[in-house]
Amino acid sequence: MSPVVLGLDISWTSTGVAVADGAPMTGYPEVSRIRTAPSKFRGVHDRLEFIIRAILNRVDDTQPDLICVEGLLTQSAQSLATQGGIFYCVTHELWRAKWPMAVIGPPTLKAFATGKGTAGKPQMMVAAAMRLGRADINDDECDALWLVAAGLQHLGRPLVKMPQAQIDRLYGLNKKQQPVIYWPKLRPTPSVSGSLQ
């Protein structure tokens, strides 16, 4: 049975979600968004609860062998505080439910997708169109799709053949000589049912 990988680009307004099983005929990735404009909610906690539950429902529906989440990019203290809040709320729930999860930093994901760690959103989308055949997606879905591609690459079931130099970026070291990605060991898939009760 082919491994299922779920990609999550977590956001307050539009969370990108992608899933694929890596099988030759059935592994074409599905992409979608969880839209959460602030005007639809009574307050920040109502909105946060909706996002977490929507993501956990996707996880429960797909039963992934591996979840790849885009990490934080510290552009400013304010953006880190707001984006970090939802990032850690979601990833804590996934951790608590013992889902195998890899956090992939934006520069590493960009380098894997385009060969350049400073690539912008347009370059990521061009790479998705050219390499993955998906020109019909937005930037949130694009990031989620590349997260799935990275996860399947790691599991030995690549969506497409990638240049070795770009694959190697998934196994590089940071300035502290630590792995840029801590890839988890796969284990029997748990259920998130009952989380947030």
Q: What percent of the residues sit in helical stretches (DSSP H or I)?
A: 40-55%
Which class best fits the helix and strand makeup?
A: alpha/beta
Tally of DSSP helical segments: 6
Name the strands of the widest sheet in spatial order: 3-2-1-4-5
CATH fold naming: Nucleotidyltransferase, domain 5
Proportion of beta-strand residues: 5-15%
User: So, the CATH homologous superfamily?
Assistant: Ribonuclease H-like superfamily/Ribonuclease H
Tally of extended strands? 5
Shape: globular
CATH C-level class:
Alpha Beta
The CATH architecture classification is 2-Layer Sandwich
End-to-end Cα distance: 32 Å
Give the gist of this structure:
The chain has helices spanning 44-62, 77-96, 106-114, 121-132, 139-154, 164-168; strands at 5-9, 14-20, 30-35, 66-70, 101-104. The chain has 197 residues and is of the alpha/beta class.
Verbal overview:
This protein has 197 residues and is α/β, with parallel strands linked by helices. The chain has one domain (5-171): 2-Layer Sandwich (Nucleotidyltransferase, domain 5), CATH 3.30.420. 41% of the residues lie in helices and 14% in strands. The chain has six helices and five strands. It has a five-stranded mixed sheet, with helices on both faces. Helix 1 crosses helix 2 (77-96) and helix 4 packs across helix 5 (139-154). The longest helix has 20 residues, at 77-96. The radius of gyration is 16 Å and the shape is globular. It starts with a strand and ends in a 29-residue tail after the last helix. The mean pLDDT is 90.
